[in-house]
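User: Sequence in, structure out. Go.
Assistant: Echoing your sequence, followed by the structure tokens.
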Amino acid sequence: MTDKQAMGTSGGTAGTSGFSARALTALLLTAIFLFGLVRITANVYSYIADRQGAGLATSPTIAWMLEGSSLAAWVVMMIPCWFAVGRIRPPRVPLPATVAIHALLAIPVSLGHIALMVAFRTMLWWTMGLDYDFTSPDGSPILYELRKDLSAYAELVFILFLVQWLVARYAAPPAKTPERRTLAIGDGSVTHHLPADEIEHVAAAGNYVEVAWRGQRLLHRATLTAIEGELAGSGFARIHRGRLVRRDAVRRVVTLKSGDFDVEMESGETLRGSRRYRENVEG
């Protein structure tokens, strides 16, 4: 007597040995955001130190609001930048053209960053009952921010290009869902298209075959040999010259003294098998 063991899973490429494209993208972008937090932390303490060195009053809260609003604005602007990098990069676009296009894009991206940053700061200052004044040390706040943003945009474009390259190169391909195989069974005036993995067993019945499917018996005009050919590669095995069973549906094999055997199916039905075919379900 043998009991069929439950099938285990060994995991596929996308499941255990690599990240999906979405997961890898999220991981890398999170790493970029955390790097941004580290940078603004350094900027906050540098700002505080510079203000104190100049003998000016300083507030850590204001410093964090200034740097945090800039980072938040860049996070939003990262969305159009992501799509721009995806479409304008080598080898899709020649390198000189890529550099020229991104140099032009840096201006509207920077203006968008400035607008968002000022909007965030205005709201933050409003919550504190204050008015935000958009100024700069040189008296030209937009040009002052543009100069800083050009280098920030170049850095962001390079990082996003690197992220997209890493995802394209190292992300695990999506698992392909195998096409479900079906068998056309004509039962009287009705033709059933049965998934092969739902057919439990097939038995010869004269010029017909009897197909066991979901507790029903469908009578189809065909030979068992012909059906066996159609089901080749679908996990069916012959246990008798007049019977096929789906191996995955076999729950137990009981060997008899005569050498023949009985197979207990998942439906609870017991079928007799011939000893010459025993290795088909026990192997």
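User: And one key feature?
Assistant: The CA atoms of residues 40 and 138 lie 22 Å apart.
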